[in-house]
Specification:
Elements lengths: L3 H13 L2 H8 L3 H15 L4 E4 L2 E4 L1 H26 L6 E7 L1 H4 L2 H12 L3 E7 L5 H6 L5 E7 L10 E16 L11 H5 L6 E4 L5 H12 L5 E5 L3 H9 L4 E5 L10 E17 L6 H13 L5
Parallel strand pairs: 3-4, 3-5, 7-8, 7-9
Antiparallel strand pairs: 1-2, 5-10, 6-9, 6-10
């Protein structure tokens, strides 16, 4: 019989790309991961990996087994959720991931609701970029997370993760009064074009926010000249107000706009969601957090 822990390692190799990355993420040694995958091949009776120098690729049989591993691990999450539902009350630790702007808008309100309804629950929040959430959920570092994607940077489908929609909001161009666009309600090129020659303020390189800003500018016909890289939208607003450049922020961030900032709504959107391991949505603690997060943005189940 195939060992589910080895199936999990095979799935992680498929997602992360190298044995070294799997070992680092799961705090194993590379040799231990390689040994366990070798045992899985012997259990399966067919080659699951192709080795070429230092690189390891999945064979067609290996990729097929990963699809079955996704289904098996999802069923285990369903079983865990069902067992948790038989307990009396909701309690214990709940590891929550969040992106920065949700950390000071949605999360505090959601946690206050959880504390009121489920005082035995112990939420533990950590800030994490949305691009890393799937890895964190699969590795068991997170139980649930707030994530987002943007136009121009759609999230890649991941069968190991389920999501519940939370909030769709427009993005705004942030400038000072000297560099504000001359038109409103126009195309992306018309709205961003006047900022082609000014410095830009974006999120740090490697984040979805950075990629969104760069691709939006490219779609408007220019390459942004990036001066500042900060992930906190409040800092973006403050820098723009002092003439340090143009930036993009979501609607929820605009409530804290300082004097001197000009906000221009763009035909560009950010979509926020709650993510958790596939099959885990019926777990009482996760369902409670989803309900609290939806209530925090004005949604009711």
């Amino acid at each position: 019989m195939l060992d589910v822990r080895r199936l999990y390692l095979l799935r992680e190799l498929d997602r992360r790309g190298t044995i070294a990355a799997v070992a680092e993420a799961l705090t194993f040694t590379a040799s231990a991961v390689s040994q366990q995958l070798g045992v899985l091949e012997r259990e399966a009776g067919v080659a699951l990996l192709e080795r070429s120098g230092r690189r390891v690729m999945l064979t067609p049989a290996g990729r097929s087994l990963v699809a079955h591993a996704d289904a098996v691990l999802q069923r285990l999450e369903l079983a865990v959720a069902e067992l948790a539902g038989t307990r009396e009350g909701i309690g214990g630790p709940l590891r929550i991931g969040t992106f920065p702007s949700a950390g000071h808008t949605i999360v505090p309100t959601a946690l206050a609701e959880l504390a009121r309804r489920h005082p035995a629950l112990e939420p533990m929040v950590q800030e994490i970029d949305s691009a890393r959430v799937s890895d964190g959920l699969r590795a068991g570092e997170l139980d649930v997370a707030l994530v987002h994607d943007y136009d121009f940077v759609p999230a890649s489908p991941d069968p190991s993760v389920d999501e519940v929609p939370l909030l769709d909001e427009p993005m705004y161009l942030v400038t000072d009064t000297e560099t504000k666009p001359s038109s409103r309600g126009g195309t992306l090129a018309e709205l961003l074009g006047p900022c082609a020659e000014v410095p830009w303020i974006t999120a740090r390189d490697g984040t979805t926010g950075h990629a969104m800003a760069v691709r939006a500018c490219q779609a408007a016909g220019f390459q942004p000249r990036i001066r500042h890289q900060v992930n906190d939208f409040r800092t973006v607003l403050a820098l723009a107000a002092t003439g340090q450049g143009a930036g993009l922020v979501p609607e929820t961030a605009t409530a804290q706009s300082p004097p001197g900032v000009v906000l221009t709504e763009l035909p560009l959107f950010r979509r926020s969601k709650v993510a958790f391991r596939a099959g885990g949505g019926s777990h009482p603690a996760i369902a409670a957090f989803v309900a609290a997060a939806r209530a925090a943005v004005g949604l009711r189940d």
